[in-house]
Amino acid sequence: MAHPTRRRALTALTTLAAAVTATVAAPAYAQAAERNRGPRPLARAHAHNDYEHPRPLLDALDHRFGSVEADIYLVDGELLVAHDPVDLDPKRTLASLYLEPLAARVRANHGSVYRGYRTPLQLLVDIKTEGAATYLELDHQLRGYRHLFTTYAHGRVRDGALTAVISGDRAAREPMERQQVRSAFYDGRLTDLGGAAPASFAPLVSDNWTNNFTWQGAGPIPAAEREKLRGIVAAAHREGRRVRFWATPDLAGPERDALWSELLAAGVDHLNTDDLAGLEAFLDAHDA
Question: Sorted alphabetically, which CDD domains does this protein's record hold (predicted)?
Answer without folding.
Answer: PI-PLCc_GDPD_SF_unchar3
